Amino acid sequence: MKCPFCEANNDKVVDSRPAEDGAAIRRRRECLVCSARFTTYEKIESLPLMVIKKDGSRQPFDREKLLMGIMKSCAKRPVTTEQIERLIDTIERVAGNMMKREITTSKIGELVLRYLRSLDEVAYIRFASVYRDFGDIHSFFEEVRSLQEQEQQVSYVADPLDDTHPVDVAALIDDTASPDNTDTPDVTL
Ligand SMILES: [Zn+2]
User: Which of 25, 50, 88, 99 pairs as cysteine with 42 (C-beta 3.0–4.6 A)?
Assistant: First the structure.
């Protein structure tokens, strides 16, 4: 470790003890050139959040890519970038709290759809058309019809990210994140 005083790279550890409740190790070091003492902390590097694609392959979660995909669905709609950022924060937080720090593309898609439906129907339909890959105009109208039916049943739609109306987002996600075997195609992430 480079000495902060003389910049020599020659030191010895004089003391080593757990810190931050065992989450870190604190090391007291002594520079062998200038005899100054300084402290270093060693911590586990947090694992990257991984996305499991439909074919079972994994890739690092790409926040920007998801943001761009959702923003495209929200073009010229009254959905703010801040609202989209909050949604992505929630997805990252929920997936990040899971043991394996993994989330499937279809779970991400479900979370996005659920949120967009409460915010803006046009954005929802646009995202769904990409995500669910409506093969024909019939399946597209089916989706619109089911949206209308649900609307008649629910008098108000709560913001799923509004803390006063908490939605169990975690329930949408298996904590044993396994490769998708559903019919839903990969969302463009
Ligand atoms: Zn030194």
Answer: 25
Does residue 187 lie within any of the structural domains? no
Same domain, 71 and 153: yes
Q: What would the pLDDT profile of 134-149 be if each residue is shown by its tens digit?
A: 666 677 677 777 777 7
CB-based contacts of 4, cutoff 8 Å, min separation 6:
36, 38
Cβ-count burial of 107 within 10 angstroms (0-12 exposed, 13-18 middle, 19+ buried)?
buried
pTM: 0.54
Q: How far is the CA of 10 from the centre of ligand 1 (A)?
A: 8
Indicate the DSSP class of residue 21.
Answer: G
Whether 167 maps to a domain, the answer reads yes
Count of Cβ atoms closer than 10 Å to residue 116 Cβ? 26
34 C-alpha vs ligand 1 centroid, how far in Å? 4
CA of 15 to the centre of ligand 1 (A): 17
Q: Is 24 helix (H, G, I), strand (E, B) or coil?
A: strand
pLDDT in tens, 144-163: 777 777 766 654 444 555 54
